[in-house]
Amino acid sequence: xxxMLPVLLLTTLLSPQVPVSSLTIEQVMTAQELQQTGVAxxxxxxxxxxxxxxxxxxxxxxxxxxxxxxxxxxxxxxxxSGEFKGWEGETIFKLANGQxxxxxxxxxMYSYSYSPDVTIYQTRSGCRMKVEDxxxxxxxxxxx
Length: 144
Hints:
Number of helices: 5
Distance between the termini: 22 Å
Number of strands: 10
Strand content: 25-35%
Low-confidence stretches: 1-18, 63-69
Order of helices and strands: HHHHHEEEEEEEEEE
Helix content: 25-40%
Largest sheet: 6 strands, antiparallel
Number of domains: 1
Mean pLDDT: 80
Shape: globular
């Protein structure tokens, strides 16, 4: 199975040992997401303000129980069982290891591949899934 270095790096940066107070937008968004959302074009003052907001938001929304949830820590490496057609709304992902995960945030992304490798890793906002050869990631929750 391919190693997904950016995913593992992100997993390390957002591990429970990293204090929420040091969290930055660059740690939770990919370079592509920074560009697509316009965050990359913000001034340093605007980016600092956004990072302060992110820390406040994360501190308020994460309970200690959520922060210690380790359903995807250590990272899970498997493959989609069969066809992968992206995600839209409440997509369910059946993995080759028998686990079943469901999209946990609204987003739409179309891509087709057969049995791509996936890595599911812990972030402060929950479990995030990275599909091989895709730049975007999606928040997921395990249903089986």
